[in-house]
Structure formats: C-alpha cells, structure tokens
Design a protein that fits this description.
heterodimer, A: 352 residues, mainly alpha, two-stranded antiparallel sheet, 1% strand, B: 390 residues, 3-stranded antiparallel sheet, 8 strands, 12% strand
C-alpha cells in the first residue's frame, strides 16, 4: 500500500486499516443518525428535532450514547445468556465485514480481492443470524415472532439482491469491486467518455431492485415487520437495553451507510471521477492521481449520503407491508424482474 | 348472512386444512400471546388475549377493565352540575361531546330547553370535539401501520382545534362547559372568524392525509378486505358510529332523531361504505371529519343571537323520572339513562359508551387473521380506553 508514495511497514498498514474501518462504519452511522433520523425526519414532520445539545442539537448523538452507556444491562431471567449477549455483536460484525471490501480510492481499500461481490453478498446475511439469535434467545414471544419474521424476510430478499447485482457483474465481467469502479469511470457511452459509464444507466432496473432489497435487508419501513413497534413492541430488540441496544442501533444505521456505499460502487461509479476529466489512461492504473486516496472517500461519502437520504425518505413516509404481502412481493415481483434483467443484460453482452 | 362472512371463515378453514396436510408429522402447538395491557397498539390498557397458530389468530378475547374508574357509581354521589366534570373523562379526546347527552337527559327531566344560541354553540363545540378526536385517529392510523409522519401532522392540526375549544371554554381537554339550561359563557370576540380559518386548515389536513395515507398502495393493501364486518353482524353486535356506517348501514343519530341541537338547520351528508372492511371504516372517518368542518362552517354562518342560558333555579333539583338520551359521538352512539328521585344528584346513571360495544366484535372479527391485521383491525375499529372502561 502506498499512501501518497509513502511506504508503510505492515503493522502501520494494519493499524491504519483497523482505524479506517472503524471510521468508515461509525462516521457514516453518526452522520446518518444526526442528519436524517434527527433532523430530516423532524423537518418532514413539522418539528425541529433536537435543539438543546450543542448548536442545532449536533451533540445530541453523544448525549444519547452517554445515556445508553449509563443504562443497566438487563437480561431476561430465562434468556439464553451467551447467545443473548453475542447477538448484537454478530449483527455489528456483519457491518464491519461488509465495509472491508468497499474501495474508497485507488489505494484506499481494506482488502481488494477478486470475489468481492460474492463476499459482500455472503457476509451481509450474517446479520440475519444475529437477529435470529436475538429473537430466539430473548425468551419473549414478541422477540420470537420478530426474529422469525426477520429470518423469513431476509432470506426472501437475499435472492433479489444477488440477482440484481448479477446484472452488474455480467456487464463488468468481474466480481472485483475495485475493477468495477475503474471500468465504470474509464468506459465510454457510444464513444463519448465525458461521463464515464456508471452502470445505473443500463442497470437501472437492477438498481431499483437492489435498493428495495437493501430496504428490506435493513428492516426499514415499509419492510420493518421484524421490529414493527406497533405490533411486536420492538420485535427482536424488545428485551435489549443499554449498551446492547446501542450496538443494534449503530449496526442498523451503519449497515444503511455501508449498503449505500456498495450501491454507489456498483451503480454510481464509486470513488472515481470519469477518467477523461483528469486525462488518466484507462489502461494504466498508475496514472491515477494519488490525491484520489483523499478525494475518493469524500466522493463516496457524498454518494452515500444521497442514497441513505433516499432510504430514510422512504422509511419516514411509508406504512409497512404485512409479512405475507412482503414475501409475495419478493417472490412474484422482484425475482422475476431481476431474472428478466439478467437475461436482457446477457443478451446485450453477447450481442455487443 | 351474506357470503362475505362465510368467505372469511372458509379461507380460515382452507388455511387450516392446508396446514394440517403439511403438519401431519410435525404437530404444531399454539401460542398464547397477550397483546397488552401495556402495548403500543392498545391506546392505553386494553388486554387482548390471542391464541396463535404461527402468526394466525385462532381465538381472541378482549379483556377490558384495567382502567375502570366507576363513573356510573360516582355519579350517584354527585349533584347534577358536578357530573359533567366526571363524564368529560370518558372519551378524553372528544370531551365536550360526552357532556351533551347527559345534560340533554337532565334537561329532558327538568323540562327546560336551552336557548337557540346555546344549542348552536353546543352543536359547534360538539363537532369541534369530533374533529379533534377523529383527526388524531387519522394520524394514529399511520403509526399503527408503521408510517410515523402522519401522526405529527395530526397533532399539529388538532392543536388549532384545541386552541379554539380552549379559547371558548377555558379547557383544552376537559371543557366542563355545558350547563343544565345552556352554557357557561358566550363565545369570545373574534372566535367565529378564527374558527372559519381553522376549518380551512383542517380540510387541508384531510387532503394531506388522503394523499399521504389513503392513496398509498401499501396502506390499501393492508386494509382492504381485512376485518370485514357484514351489516347484519355489525347490527347484532351493536356497533355504532363510523364502524356501523362502514358496513353499509345508513344510521346517524345526528340526522335520525330530534334533539334540541342545531343539526336540523344544516345540510350534511351521512357517508356510508358498502365494503365493511378496515379501509371502509378509516375512509368513513376521513369523510366525516371533512363533513364536520363543513357543518361547523354552516353553523357559524347562521348562529342566532340571544342569551346562552335559560332560566333555571340556582340549586338544581331534577324532578323524579327516567330519561334516555343518546347522541352521535365521535366514537359512535353514546347515551345516558338517567334515573332521578327528585334529589340534587341522580339516583342511577347508566352510561352507554360507544367503544365498549364496538370492541365486543373483536373475538368475531379477529378469528383467522394474522398478527399485523390484529393491529390494523383494532386501529380501524377505533376505541378509546376511557370509553371502554368508564
């Protein structure tokens, strides 16, 4: 790894990566919670949101974290304690594993391997396991219903997500996320390379399906039956308090951020700017400016905020589906649509 | 009985049969779930015991009484003017409407009638409390279905109505404004123009809710065809108000009975819906809120002048006798059967509150539905705990 042509020893690289991973998960989560959950939602609902802690309530998040840290860590008497305690960590772990493959710049990535898309889809379902563990071990009927709903829902939505990503993979001809980004920025549309070739232009159906699946994967409204606060009190999170609830909370919003990062990598051109703008040579990656290691994360952050704003906007305005309607929607609408999308993509790929 | 109820039963039996085929070897055990007494969906402390097979309800039973305050008994140790302070708290979202039927029953026994201006103001405040009550329902409906934004709009716009009620009566929630023979006070200056502006805002609110919730496909798919109550069943269970009209029964006490209120002076439409499902119940309430704002507008235009209090003795002794008066309250038919023995206070008061009868259909309508539908059906039946437990 050469950050601005400075060669670092292995330990320093590892330290940087761990720090970077933590920042890449916690910073977006914090911004999403403050900007969207606290403020955007409040303005949509004709109120101000937090205003007391810090200027415009900007320190509210720290106040909340402080509050949660002070709270007693309560576990139900009949809970399966080991599983109960591990569950939030499993959910958060899935987020950290996800962020590991996201490229932020030509050299700013945590790991860069060829099966990146495959890995991403695999680790994203670990959170299902954590949610199921939480639901089952809480010894609470609401939690149990919530956990089982989550399992059914997340498995149903894994498939459209995989199928929608396949369209991109076919078009790019690779599963390496870094290569997908570079391809999107170096390709041209009918010989015109002013915009690169972000895959949302051809894969907009896949993009829609992917965002809907992400909404379901994150258990956000209209797919929030596992939590469903008006039916199941709080679903699988009912029995959690204090720090463990905080971990679930962070994981929810961090995963929203990370999925938005992945969506921007797959469909919106990731960290890159169209190569023609800077005069970089598409065949020679060494020509990419090293400053993109700083600029890239900022570009990614902007794209992530746009996509999470979309996710949260839907979350604040829609009512929720019923469990069976959700399954019907996944199996009868999303999967056929994404299959057709794959077919058309493949035909075009072979034809051109 | 129409086939729609049979269809619900048949679909349940078919689902059971399908499950039975699958579960020949795997015997599944039911699960009893206590929804409440402390639960976000019960608006208070109602307990609903449901027996679940998976997520399907096979048996349900509402268990009321966690908030029983004994108002019927308490009225026996109060004088007549004191009772309104109690009955205010029955349906706490539309408080003023609770006072009216009791006062009318007492006036009937005393054979006094409020002057016309008092009757008109009573009717206006009655409709305002209906708007305050039902607009909150329209927002809360969203929360029950997972949409969090409408409820804030409802709170925002209900505030205008509460301010009106406060400026006229002095109390936001519990006005205690009605007196035997009239009203405590006349309207404050400028109230009529202000009310007209607020009614415009409330109509805007109804349009907003209609666009945000009722036009939403998810909302419709959650409510249409769910919790169907046929007209016959609704009548048998004694439903009233919007729940009954949503089943296609054209029955509205504002229009169908003659009371010393100003309803016969205004034009209004009684909305009915042929479907009888949850969506119909919610839709009827939306239309009725709109209709109520129009009623208020008409009443404000034609409000007569004159005194607001008839001649009644300073110490009110109600002559011996029995009287029953019921009105079309926000939640449905609310009536008081007042027995007087000629004392300062009533000898016995029987309160017929709408929600108590409206939730009696819960065991019938919840059978065979899924857990999320339990919530949406309860939300659409719209009960207030104070109105159930009294």
């Amino acid at each position: 790894m050469s950050l601005l042509a400075v060669d670092l020893p292995y330990w320093a690289q590892s330290l940087l990566r761990v720090l970077g991973g933590t920042v890449a998960v916690l910073l977006p989560a914090g911004t999403i919670v403050y900007l969207f959950l606290f403020k955007m939602m409040s303005f949509m609902q004709s109120r101000l949101g937090p205003m007391e802690a810090g200027p415009y309530g900007s320190m509210q998040l720290f106040a909340e974290v402080g509050k949660w840290l002070q709270k007693e860590d309560i576990a139900p008497a009949r809970a399966d304690l080991k599983v109960f305690r591990a569950a939030p960590l499993v959910v958060l772990m899935s987020t950290f594993l996800l962020v590991a493959v996201v490229p932020f710049g030509p050299d700013a990535y945590f790991t860069n391997f060829d099966a990146g898309v495959f890995y991403m889809l695999a680790v994203s379902s670990i959170s299902t396991l954590g949610i199921l563990m939480a639901g089952w071990s809480s010894a609470n009927k609401y939690s149990l219903l919530g956990g089982l709903r989550a399992a059914g829902q997340l498995i149903a939505y894994e498939l459209p997500m995989v199928l929608s990503v396949l369209g991109v993979v076919i078009q790019a001809g690779t599963m390496n996320l870094q290569v997908i980004v570079i391809k999107q920025n170096s390709d041209s549309i009918f010989g015109w390379n002013g915009l690169g070739y972000p895959y949302i232009l051809t894969q907009f159906v896949a993009f829609l399906v992917f965002m809907i699946s992400v909404q379901a994967e994150l258990t956000q409204t209209p797919f929030d039956m596992p939590i469903a606060e008006s039916e199941l009190v709080s679903g699988y999170m009912t029995e959690y308090s204090g720090f463990r609830f905080l971990i679930f909370f962070i994981a929810e919003f961090a995963t929203a951020g990370v999925f938005a990062l992945i969506a921007s990598v797959l469909f919106l051109g990731g960290w890159g700017i169209p190569f023609s703008w800077a005069g970089w040579d598409p065949t020679d990656l060494g020509s990419i400016d090293n400053w993109m290691n700083f600029g890239g994360p900022l570009i990614m952050f902007t794209k992530m905020m746009v996509l999470t704003a979309l996710i949260m906007w839907v979350r604040f305005s829609y009512p929720r589906f019923r469990e069976d309607q959700l399954q019907r929607f996944a199996w009868k609408v999303l999967i056929p649509v994404s299959l057709v999308n794959i077919m058309i993509t493949a035909i075009f790929k072979v034809a051109f | 009985m129409p086939d729609i109820a049979d269809r619900q039963k048949l679909s349940y039996i078919a689902a059971q049969a399908a499950d039975a085929r699958l579960n020949v070897e795997l015997e599944t055990e039911g699960m009893t779930l206590n929804i409440g007494p402390q639960h976000p969906a019960t608006h208070g402390t109602l307990r609903i015991i449901v027996r679940l097979d998976g997520e399907q309800v096979i048996w349900a039973e509402p268990s009321a009484g966690y908030m029983h305050r004994g108002y019927e008994k308490l009225t026996e140790v109060r004088t007549f003017p004191q009772v309104t302070a109690l009955v205010n708290r029955i349906d706490w979202l539309g408080s003023f409407a609770n006072e009216v039927p009791f006062i009318l029953a007492a006036e009937k026994l005393m054979q006094v009638e409020a002057p016309p201006r008092a009757q008109w103001i009573r009717t206006i405040l009655f409709e305002l409390s209906r708007i305050a009550n039902v607009s909150l329902f329209l927002g809360d409906l969203g929360v029950q279905l997972g949409a969090i934004t409408p409820v804030f709009m409802a709170f925002r716009d209900r505030e205008y109505v509460l301010n009106l009620i406060e400026s006229a009566t002095g109390g936001r929630f519990h006005p205690n404004f009605d007196r035997i023979g009239g009203l405590k006070d006349d309207l404050p200056a400028g109230w009529i123009t202000e009310t007209k502006q607020v009614m415009k805002k409330l109509r805007n609110f109804c349009d907003e809710i209609e666009a945000l919730l009722f036009g939403n496909e998810i909302f419709q798919s959650r409510l249409r065809g769910i919790g169907v109550i046929p007209a016959e069943v609704a009548k048998q269970y004694g439903l009233s108000g919007a729940n009954l009209r949503a089943s296609g029964v054209d029955w509205d006490l504002r229009r169908d009975q003659q009371l010393p209120l100003a309803y016969d002076k205004v034009e209004f439409k009684v909305w009915t819906h042929p479907d009888g499902d949850s969506f119909a119940r919610c839709w009827i309430r939306l239309q009725e809120t709109r209709e109520a704002t129009l009623i208020v507008d008409q009443l404000l235009d034609g409000i007569p002048s004159g005194p607001v209090m008839a001649k009644v003795p300073r110490i009110i002794k109600v002559p011996a006798g029995e009287a029953w008066v019921s009105t079309e309250n926000p939640l449905g038919e609310m009536g008081y059967y007042v027995v007087s023995k000629g004392d300062l206070g009533p000898f016995r008061v029987k309160i017929r509150s709408a929600s108590f009868n409206n939730i009696s259909i819960v065991p019938w309508v919840l059978r065979g539905v899924y857990v999320p539908d339990v919530i949406s059906i309860l939300a659409s039946l719209y009960f207030i705990l104070g109105d159930i437990d009294r």
